[in-house]
Specification:
The protein has 320 residues and is of the alpha/beta class. It has two domains: 204 residues, Rossmann fold (3-Layer(aba) Sandwich); 87 residues, UDP-galactose 4-epimerase, domain 1, CATH 3.90.25. α1 links the parallel β1 and β2. The chain binds nicotinamide-adenine-dinucleotide. Nicotinamide-adenine-dinucleotide (NAD) binds next to α1, α4, β5 and β7.
Amino acid sequence: MESKKILVTGGAGFIGSNMIQRLLDLGNSVVAYDNLSSGNKAFIKNAFRYQNFRFVEGDILNKQLLEELFSDVKFDLVIHLAANADIVKGMKSPWLDINIGIIGTLNILDVMEKHGVKNIIFSSTSAVYGNASELPTSEDYTDRGKALPVSSYAASKLAAENLIRSYSERAGLGYLIYRFANVVGNNYSHGILIQMVDKLSKSKESLEVIGRGMQKRAYMLVDDLIDAILHTYDKGLRDEVFNVSTDELLSVDQIVRRITDKVSENCVIRYTMDTSPLLGDVVETYISNQKLKNTGFSYKHESHQAVDITIDHLVERFKL
Ligand SMILES: NC(=O)c1ccc[n+]([C@@H]2O[C@H](COP(=O)([O-])OP(=O)(O)OC[C@H]3O[C@@H](n4cnc5c(N)ncnc54)[C@H](O)[C@@H]3O)[C@@H](O)[C@H]2O)c1
């Protein structure tokens, strides 16, 4: 991906900021569009050094502003990352996910059609599968009507995926949809690692962890995630859905121990032993990355390496 005009919605967020840096390094012109609700301008401070970078503070629900931007710049590609990535917040207020995830995505698709922009990359989630009966879960699980999202976040992502497909039909849009597992790395800003490090920054002697520590997840470094997206896009693949994940599953307990080993070896870890999952949380997620591997892609960091790199970033950020 080079010498393209690219709009990145949610460009000041965790994944967006890393994506922007990579796109600029490859010589693309990039506009980051973000309402800074969870994004942070500090994440993209380096991008402002590039002449071919522009930041627009705006909401994807502000159609007028999107219209003005699309009239001004003839984009080759939209990388649509803006979303409410806080599942619990969305469970408390589902309209948040419906508005940002569905109406916001419709706004993007609508202006793309109007201005003849033909390519979209969309960040979906492994959460669309819900508590899947098949593990590892492959992409066609949704096509077989089996996916039952358990959060309004995941429901809005699945709806947005389907909207994108419908725009592919009506407007000849080429899409790539990626269902991410857990992404970690530089500028990581939400999820278990930061919650634990935040708690430890207040007290290093003890750490309370909700649950029993058994829940397992795969973690991918954001650099590998971006590699996967660029690899598939550059291969010319279109109108495809890809799971993006590593193979290695780590339990909460393994994660917590990796953190305390680095931050506070003598820390007493106390599990609350709650057995009921958090509202909106999928009990077990394990997605197949075979389709992605079949394209010739291989990631560079296993889950434990991705987690360790992220812990190092957080230790520095929290000055632990
Ligand atoms: N981080 C993960 O592990 C993960 C996993 C699966 C999917 N995803 C998806 O990847 C995308 C990026 O996630 P992230 O982890 O970087 O989260 P993030 O919260 O850091 O990034 C989302 C960005 O979107 C912006 N935003 C939110 N609502 C907006 C609106 N209405 N208008 C304009 N901007 C808005 C936020 O300010 C933020 O900068 C999201 O779509 C998320 O659902 C992330």
